[in-house]
């Protein structure tokens, strides 16, 4: 096989990374393929390429195996490696509202842009919103995937179930796409669905450790407190974004987000440079529109903030700063602490929901309260069981002695006690659940443990009194003393 043929074969391959190409070429051809960044020419047998080379345009240098001294280069070709950015949209239209200019800039720099629509809104909207997202995709050229079935993420729904499905979907998509960059809402974006998606991306990337792709977050409903990456763009780009966004006719009828997208971009052209590079920095006059993102990188178990910079689509990645931002990413959200917009006044304030963010002391108080409520609940529950057991023994004794009237009175007492217990336990059970919800929002460890054990069955059993009243009431000492009951049969034996 001639070196020229090797080069031709390599160019025909759908090469995803330097590693794949390198593994492929020697096995097939017996030739060595040398890789270097554009412009650089190796003078001797090259060291293993730096991983960052996978993200750059590469030259392939093909030569026979270096049995003797390295031969001069035979040929030089430019190979394009495929680089992928994965965008997670809580709703169809978020890909054109969150960070559309950034995604389009990467697309134009030959990145593969994959937009994953996690939901399609309410069930009645599914057909319309799916048609809209497909129409938008033809306008943007973004590859579009829709999770099947779409994740149900409405405010009143089962948040734990949505969280589990999102975690599984994000992990599966990232495993499939091998993206170098992930774009999503921040976990503090106020909207319930946006925060669920942001948190699922955060937790999935944290699990990938140092292999995790870089994370770029946008903010629509919740402002980004720590922007680090600015994408500058011009009037033709904003026209392109607005024209694509127009595909979402149904959503725009309700609220014309085109106004927001354009106004925010203009606002950021003024605020962005000072927010990124320090107050007193100059805002370049020729930059009319800017999109802001917060970049985070997972390094050695910590979240590091990206370095403040303007986006260069041909080299979009840079080493992160030394600033750890895990305390921001993991902290309870405003929506979790103070309620979703519009819910204020309807939600009864629990501990920690009034005033400043929870500090260490408040968290520890909340934890004490959670333990206290749990143990009071369980103690009452034990007392109830003891009382019922005593009544049952007395009842059986009375029946054995033929004292049907006494047995009837005891049975009535048992009924009253059970009714009282049902009432008290329902009221207290609600309180225990509210405290547990608060603890889950404020204490991530507690949330993880609570949700990992929340199958539908165990959710019902989490308030143990329900299981007990569900079994004790039908089978307990509540049967009519005038009938031959299972209980009397047992006591006779
Ligand atoms: Zn949305």
Shape: elongated
Number of strands: 12
CATH fold name of the largest domain, please? Rossmann fold
- Helical content class: 40-55%
Tell me what you see in this structure:
- It is a single chain.
- The protein is an alpha/beta fold.
- It has helices spanning 3-12, 18-29, 100-108, 126-140, 159-177, 192-208, 235-245, 249-254, 257-277, 326-330, 334-338, 360-400, 404-442, 444-452, 456-461, 464-475, 486-492; strands at residues 32-37, 58-63, 75-79, 83-89, 111-117, 143-146, 181-185, 214-218, 229-233, 289-299, 302-305, 309-310.
- It has 3 domains: 3-79, no CATH class; 83-336, Rossmann fold (3-Layer(aba) Sandwich); 360-492, no CATH class.
- The strands form 2 sheets. Strands 4, 5, 6, 7, 8, 9, 10, 11 and 12 form a 9-stranded mixed β-sheet that branches. A 3-stranded antiparallel β-sheet has the order 1-2-3, with helices on one face.
- Helix 3 (100-108) links the parallel strand 4 and strand 5.
- Helix 5 (159-177) packs across helix 6, helix 13 (404-442) crosses helix 14 (444-452) and helix 13 runs antiparallel to helix 16 (464-475).
- It is elongated.
- Bound molecules: zinc ion.
List the helices and strands and how they pair.
Blueprint: H1 3-12, H2 18-29, E1 32-37, E2 58-63, E3 75-79, E4 83-89, H3 100-108, E5 111-117, H4 126-140, E6 143-146, H5 159-177, E7 181-185, H6 192-208, E8 214-218, E9 229-233, H7 235-245, H8 249-254, H9 257-277, E10 289-299, E11 302-305, E12 309-310, H10 326-330, H11 334-338, H12 360-400, H13 404-442, H14 444-452, H15 456-461, H16 464-475, H17 486-492
Parallel strand pairs: 4-5, 4-7, 5-6, 7-8, 9-12
Antiparallel strand pairs: 1-2, 2-3, 8-10, 9-10, 10-11
Bound molecules: zinc ion (ZN).
């Amino acid at each position: 096989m001639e070196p020229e043929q090797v080069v031709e074969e390599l160019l025909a391959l759908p090469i995803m990374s330097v590693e794949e190409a390198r593994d492929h070429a020697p096995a097939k051809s017996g030739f060595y393929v040398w890789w270097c960044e554009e412009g650089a020419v190796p003078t001797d047998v090259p060291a293993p390429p730096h991983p960052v080379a996978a993200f750059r345009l590469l030259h392939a240098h093909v030569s026979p195996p270096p049995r003797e001294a390295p031969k001069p280069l035979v040929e030089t070709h430019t190979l394009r490696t495929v680089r992928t950015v994965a965008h997670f949209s809580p709703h169809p239209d978020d890909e054109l509202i969150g960070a559309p200019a950034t995604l389009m800039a990467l697309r134009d720099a030959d990145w593969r842009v994959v937009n994953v629509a996690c939901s399609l809104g309410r069930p009645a909207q599914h057909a319309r919103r799916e048609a809209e997202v497909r129409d938008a995709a033809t306008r943007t050229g973004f590859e579009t995937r829709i999770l099947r079935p779409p994740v149900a993420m409405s405010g009143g729904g089962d948040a734990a179930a949505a969280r589990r499905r999102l975690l599984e979907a994000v992990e599966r998509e990232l495993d499939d796409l091998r993206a170098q960059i992930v774009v999503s809402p921040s976990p503090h974006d106020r909207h319930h669905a946006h925060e669920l998606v942001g948190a699922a991306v955060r937790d999935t990337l944290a699990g990938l450790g140092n292999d995790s792709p870089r994370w770029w977050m946008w903010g629509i409903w919740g402002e980004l407190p720590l922007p680090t990456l600015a994408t500058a763009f011009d009037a033709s780009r904003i026209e392109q974004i607005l024209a694509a966004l127009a595909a979402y006719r149904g959503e725009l009828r309700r609220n014309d987000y085109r106004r927001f997208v354009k106004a925010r971009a203009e606002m950021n052209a003024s605020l962005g440079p000072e927010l990124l590079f320090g107050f007193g920095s100059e805002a370049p006059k020729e930059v009319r529109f800017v999109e802001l993102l917060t970049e985070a990188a997972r390094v050695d178990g910590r979240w590091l903030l990206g370095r403040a910079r303007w986006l260069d689509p041909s080299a979009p990645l840079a080493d992160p700063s030394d600033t750890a931002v895990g305390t921001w990413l993991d902290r309870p959200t405003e929506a979790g602490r103070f309620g979703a917009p519009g819910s204020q006044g309807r939600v009864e304030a629990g501990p920690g929901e009034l005033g400043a963010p929870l500090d260490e002391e408040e968290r520890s108080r909340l934890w004490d309260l959670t333990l206290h409520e749990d143990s009071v609940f369980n103690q009452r529950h034990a007392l109830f069981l003891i009382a019922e057991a005593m009544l049952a023994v007395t009842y059986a004794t009375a029946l054995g002695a033929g004292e049907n009237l006494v047995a009837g009175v005891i049975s009535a007492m048992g009924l009253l006690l059970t009714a009282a217990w049902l009432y008290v336990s329902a009221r207290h059970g609600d309180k225990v659940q509210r405290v547990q919800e608060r603890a889950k929002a404020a204490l991530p460890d507690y949330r993880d443990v609570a949700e990992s054990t929340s199958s539908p069955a165990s959710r019902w059993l989490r308030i143990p009194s329900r299981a007990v009243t569900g079994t004790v009431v039908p089978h307990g000492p509540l049967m009519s003393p005038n009938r031959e009951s299972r209980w009397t049969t047992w006591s006779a034996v």
